[in-house]
Amino acid sequence: MHETGWRVRGIRWPRRPWPLWAVLLLALLPRAGCVGYSIPEASDPEAVLTPPAAPLDAADTAAIITEILRQANRARSAVGARPLAPDPALDTAAREYAAELAERGAIGHSSTTPGRRTVRERLRAAGANYRRSGENLALMQNTASQLPVRVVRGWLRSPGHRTNLLDPRFRYSGLGVTRDEGGRWFVVQVYGGE
Fold first, then answer.
1. What is the helix (H) or strand (E) element at residue 140, kind and residue range?
2. Residue 105 — φ and ψ, nearest 5°?
3. Which of 83, 34, 69 is nearest to 189 (CA)?
4. Contact call for residues 192 and 90 (beta carbons, < 8 A)
5. What is the dihedral sign for C-alpha 63, 71, 178, 51?
6. With 0-12 CB in 10 A as exposed, 13-18 as middle and 19+ as buried, what is 78?
7. Concatenated DSSP letters for 82-117?
8. Residue 72 contacts residue 161 (beta carbons within 8 Å)
9. How far apart are CA 14 and CA 153, in angstroms?
10. Is-contact 109 133, C-beta < 8 A?
11. pTM of the predicted protein model
12. Residues 84 and 69 sit within 8 Å (Cβ to Cβ)
């Protein structure tokens, strides 16, 4: 197959030149103070353009969790469901699973940890025993202030997540929020009901 375009430093560029506005925009970004991202070397296939993550302290995490729960209960109130009450055992399960997901770098409802493979197993291991349980996960790249609204909005737009969030049979909730080195947020909300 014949390759079209130019190769510069290992990067294939299209034969057509970039539009003038794009070239000017790229030239002016550093002068406008829009720098802060590191550009990876072309030889590093694993490199990603991400801002450096600031450390997350306990007060920040608590504020984010409080606001996510407030947003969730606001959505539940709009459909006539009772507010979710926090449960320390559910919080523990959610927090531990959020940390596991951040370490893995991906989200999924199945864990590789023996005895904690399903949401029910994770809840039991944390000391929570409910007849009904559910779990919502989110992986997002937002600022801390945007995260609670965007997480709940995303869950409300997804049929399965919306069902869990608004299910009136769920009475209790636990939340776990953590951030990886790349600045991605991992959010876990688990639900319990009789």
1. strand 132-140
2. 80, 15
3. 69
4. yes
5. negative
6. exposed
7. PPPEE-HHHHHHHHHHHHHHHHHTS--S--SSTT-S
8. no
9. 38
10. no
11. 0.71
12. yes
pLDDT at residue 43, as a whole number? 38
Distance CA 34, CA 152 (A): 29
pLDDT in tens, 118-163: 999 999 999 999 999 999 999 999 889 999 999 999 999 999 999 9
Please list, in sequence order, all residues whose beta carbon lies within 8 angstroms of the beta carbon of residue 92, skipping any fewer than 6 positions away: 126, 127, 174
Q: Which amino acid is at 173?
A: S
Rounded to whole angstroms, the maximal C-alpha distance in the chain is: 65
Rounded-to-integer distance, Cα 72 and Cα 90, Å: 16
Mean pLDDT of 37-49: 35
pLDDT digits (tens, 9 = 90+) for 91-115: 999 999 999 999 999 999 999 899 9
**Which residue reads 């349980």 in tokens?**
133
